[in-house]
Amino acid sequence: MQDYDIDSCSIISGKHFRNKYMRKWNWDMEDLREAIKDAYKVDKIGKKKYELYTKKGGSKKIIFVYYKEDESIFIISGADKK
């Protein structure tokens, strides 16, 4: 069970993630929300930080922070997984 509800959270992407990965993967914010929703593995790696693994358009890893106070997710970075 996740600490967050993706349907009610706002999603904010960092400049690095937006300019590098979202362009490379040809995603918009709806694609990002769908990828988070359909993740096959989510690891909590800190107090508020998560690593998420999804297979949308190939295997990918997304690193994000969840802020419970304002129910928002801030996307830090991503990576293509082999």
How would you characterize the overall build of this protein?
The chain has 82 residues and is α+β, with helices and mostly antiparallel strands. The chain has a single domain (10-80), classed as Nuclear Transport Factor 2, Chain: A, CATH 3.10.450.530. 24% of the residues lie in helices and 38% in strands. The chain contains two helices and five strands; from the N terminus they run βααββββ. It has helices spanning 15-25, 29-37, and strands at 10-13, 41-44, 49-54, 60-67, 72-80. β2 and β3 form a beta hairpin. 18% of the residues are buried. The mean pLDDT is 92.
The helix count comes to: 2
The CATH superfamily name is Ribonuclease toxin, BrnT, of type II toxin-antitoxin system
Order of secondary-structure elements = EHHEEEE
SS content category: alpha+beta
Poorly predicted residue ranges: none
Number of domains: 1
CATH topology: Nuclear Transport Factor 2, Chain: A
Distance between the termini: 27 Å
Which range does the strand content fall in? Answer: 35-45%
> How many β-strand runs?
5
The major beta sheet can be summarized as: 5 strands, mixed
Strand order within the widest beta sheet: 1-5-4-3-2
Percent helix, as a range, is: 10-25%
CATH class designation: Alpha Beta
Give Rg in angstroms: 12 Å
Shape: globular
CATH architecture: Roll
Mean pLDDT: 92
